[in-house]
Amino acid sequence: MSEEYGTAPTLAALRRARAAQDSALRWMRLLGPALAGGVTLSVLRAEPSVGSSGRGLVVSLTLAAFAGGSYGTHVATRGSWRHTACAVLLVAGAVSLVWAQGGRTGFFALFTAIVLLVRKMPTRLAVALSTITLLMLVLASITSSHLSPFSALVVVAAIGCYCLITLLAERLRLANLEAEQLLTELEGTRAAEARAAALAERQHLAREMHDVLAHSLSGLMLQLEGARLLAASNPTDPRLPGALERAHQLGKTGLDEARRAIGMLRDDELPIPDRLPDLTRRFEEVRGVPCRLTVDGEALELGSEARLAIYRVAQEALTNIAKHAEAERVEVSLDYRHDAVVLTVEDFAAEPTRSDEDAAAGSDGEGYGLAGMRERAELLGGTLTAGATANGFRVLLEVPA
Which parts of the chain span the membrane according to its record (predicted)? Predict the structure, then answer.
């Protein structure tokens, strides 16, 4: 439960961090054109021979316009339009610089870097083009007298720092976005698991209530039917008070069992195999059929679900015997083995009176009999087999210890 409650604050904190990073990234994108433009103007002022008049001035103004326009296009365009706008700006810049002629290679490289810095491009492509751009700028400073090495280094440093910071911030943002998606999927998975657990709990409760009520109420109905017949034939029959007393005890036992089943949802008070003697004794008293319990081996430490399964399977098997069989005797055995516990419930009759279909229907004919017992066993990694024998019917449960 603590994990479920701990996920929500983590996801909220991650979303807040990503929002802050997105805001910082937007400011960095604003800083990019400003930084590149500022460096360009500084270089122009430091190098009077470049772009101070004539065609050079036209080139400078064109570069400034393209730098601002490239950022505006970045904001306004989406998808493939961004790449189209980037290509148009590059072509237009190349044409204007060719028209200006002479010693403008460095500024064409600078312009290319400005455009790249404000575009969203794949990381590898952006790194490759930026590297080429910076190499062109350095080469221009070496081969041309219009741009000093110091000015070229200033431009390279400015562009390089901005590229590095932008790439790191973008990578961190993408990593957080992926983590947020994973946490969202985890929340969905945990919600689905919670719904499945709730459904399993409802099914578990349905089985428990069935086992409790079917066992007690079927016996109660038999006793009341016997009392009714006695009262109808002979109201003064001395057996009548005994039948009514047994019916009363069955009703009381059923109520206690129902309360215990409900209480299982709140605590760990679960039926254990130690209660099997009481179960077999009550069966013998109510049904009037001898029921012998034998326990072999040294008792093993069992989990709560295994203990519950052993008790409920024994209870359901005895209920089915009372309802569907005309048994002369019943034997219940509990065998503690090295790595498993085996419960056997078998009835013996002069002639077989019960089919596999009778047992499969369950004590109330609605499928909670063998199906419910087998489901209990499978949930524990065990097995349950049931079938007719030469003189009756046998249910065998094996659960791992």
Answer: 24-44, 56-76, 88-118, 125-144, 150-169
